[in-house]
């Protein structure tokens, strides 16, 4: 699946331009990797990096930060802001072969792959596994759950898990949104060791809407069998 151009348009219209590091990324990376040691050889890739909200946090610990996003506009903006890592920032569809030969200690996916169908997510995870160092970690947040109220309200269904056509709410104009249950997650991440897998639900007082999502920490075994 190619990059959804909806996101490029949203960025050009100054939408979804987060500027602060996400708390789950900060806590997950520091708790589950050697990033906290400040080792200059530590190497990070963020897929679907968007406006680079997590980059200042990463760069405060190590210089080897990479990013890939399908929006040429947003990657151009990032190259201008983060000149020291400009050569590490690439325009591309991360569900297709990556332009990196680097092996990574940490791969971060903050709600990025969720906008692809399961077959594309599987292809991306297989590639992530191959390019993680032994013992490396992939940190995934905001994989939307089938318990999310917008799952049942989707205007269109691509398949059992992939919905599209939203014109309202948090998924307005973002294209495809994949929703996950535990069975699908275990199928997709079977190569990895699951360090943690959490499911959260929240609702706003006075609303019948429920936000439900999965987060996980996955590790490539230090010694493959």
Automatic annotation (TrEMBL):
UniProt keyword Transferase, yes or no: yes
Keyword Protease: no
Domain Methyltransferase residue range list: 44-136
Sorted UniProt keywords: Methyltransferase, Transferase
Signal peptide stretch: none
Molecular function per GO: methyltransferase activity
GO biological process: methylation
Gene3D superfamilies attached to this UniProt entry: Vaccinia Virus protein VP39
Protein name: Methyltransferase type 11
Organism: Pseudoalteromonas rubra
Lineage, top ranks: Bacteria, Pseudomonadati, Pseudomonadota, Gammaproteobacteria, Alteromonadales
């Amino acid at each position: 699946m190619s990059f959804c151009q909806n996101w490029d348009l949203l960025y050009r219209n100054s939408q979804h331009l987060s500027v602060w590091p996400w708390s789950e990324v900060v806590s997950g990376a520091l708790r589950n990797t050697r990033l906290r040691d400040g080792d200059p050889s530590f190497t990070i890739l963020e897929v679907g990096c968007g406006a680079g909200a997590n980059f200042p946090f990463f760069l405060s610990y190590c210089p080897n930060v990479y990013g890939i996003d399908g929006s040429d506009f947003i990657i151009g903006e990032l190259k201008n802001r983060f000149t020291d890592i400009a050569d590490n920032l690439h325009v591309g569809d991360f569900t297709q072969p990556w332009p990196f030969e680097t092996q990574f200690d940490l791969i971060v996916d903050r709600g990025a792959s969720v906008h692809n169908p399961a077959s594309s997510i599987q292809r991306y995870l297989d590639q992530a596994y191959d390019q993680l160092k032994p013992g490396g970690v992939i940190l995934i947040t905001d994989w939307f759950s089938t318990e999310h109220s917008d799952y049942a309200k989707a205007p269109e269904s691509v398949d059992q898990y992939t919905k599209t056509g939203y014109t309202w709410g948090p998924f307005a104009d973002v294209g495809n949104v994949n929703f996950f249950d535990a069975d699908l997650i275990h199928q997709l991440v079977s190569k990895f060791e699951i360090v943690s897998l959490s499911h959260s639900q929240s609702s706003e007082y006075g609303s019948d809407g429920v936000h439900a999502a999965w987060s996980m920490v996955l590790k490539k075994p230090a010694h493959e069998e």
